Task: structure prediction
Amino acid sequence: MLIDVPKLISLDEILPTEPLLMMGAGPVPIPEQVAKANSIVINHLGDTMAKIISQVKQMSRYVFQTQSPWILGVAGPGSAAMEMAVTNLVWQDTRVLSISNGFFSSRLAEMASRVGANVKTFQVEETHIPDLAQIKQLLDTFKPEVITLVQGETSNTVCNKNLAEISQLAHQYGCYVIVDAVCTLSTMALKMDEWKIDAVITGGQKGLSSIPGVSLIAFSERAYQRMHARPSKCPQWCLDAQLAEQFWHHGSYHYTAPVSGILAIHEALALICKETLESRFARHLRCSLALQRGIEALGLSLYVPEQARLNSVIGINVPEGIEQKDLCRHISSRYRVEIAGSFGLNIVRIGQMGEQSRAHHLFRTLHAFGCSIRDLGGRIDLPTGMAELERGLQASVTTVDN
Ligand SMILES: *Cc1c(COP(=O)(O)O)cnc(C)c1O
Result:
């Protein structure tokens, strides 16, 4: 006796006939070129793959702004890259200072404690960035060997704008710095070498505008030395950077690499190189600021004050009398635009990562957002909001510190 064949509905019936515009906190829309590459399967070893891997590493060095050769890919979500950074640099009793101001920075702390580290969490006040003087004090007293932090906290839309100062300070103490840039890489400045960061993590489906499931990580030369000198083997076989090095640097087998996803990320990186980081940062900043002005002109308020506000995903306070869930559901079903709720906060989040930062997407999104609030009984000034968005997109912006 066999178990019965299941009764199914076809994928066409499950998927919406008109695709939803993905304007939430990731995954984000992908360019045609990325989608096309993602449909190809080739041998995971051999000359063709070697050329592709070599270019992925070259382009990554540009995007991460590092001379370090130690670029590795991971078959897995951004969290797998986070875990790879943590478990390779942290082990039993390692003193880890985890700067925590949101969901993802707490995840890094959790990962460090699971490998037996001595973790001290520095809890930053909601909607604030960490205070440098307090971090200095912790470097003096707790003497962490590793610091973990997030550049852009997608969960509550806070940007740790003093990342460079924190990292450079930690470096003076000989401390290793792990930075989660899943949401921010290629949307705003991150200079791995100049800022003295030892491990930078990114995922595919956010700033890079590739597919979910293949992630990248860059280790500094110093971090690489530390991994090779560790007292015991990395507990996770798949995430062992020394084993991953076999594939990413010596053309041999570790596990079967996610070839289609690597081809996709190759194309995503190639598009970034073609656009250049300078223009890409300016595009993101212009789009984000224009959308922020547009939302405020509707008569709504943003969750995070400007000095700590992330320009890759913005958090909007849900107007009184409207339920966050209803708003997300309505804009999706009625206007075919996806936005995100949040982990426990009464905000909705709209992304400006990669392909999300295109004028036509922003117009459609703001219009749908305003209409949805009106449909649900809220009071907003839609024409003024749309006009502000248009004005913002025309404005020239200068990005600080490209
Ligand atoms: C999305 C995100 C992650 C987790 O990425 P997954 O691909 O969901 O594992 C980690 N950190 C930040 C800042 C993120 O935005």
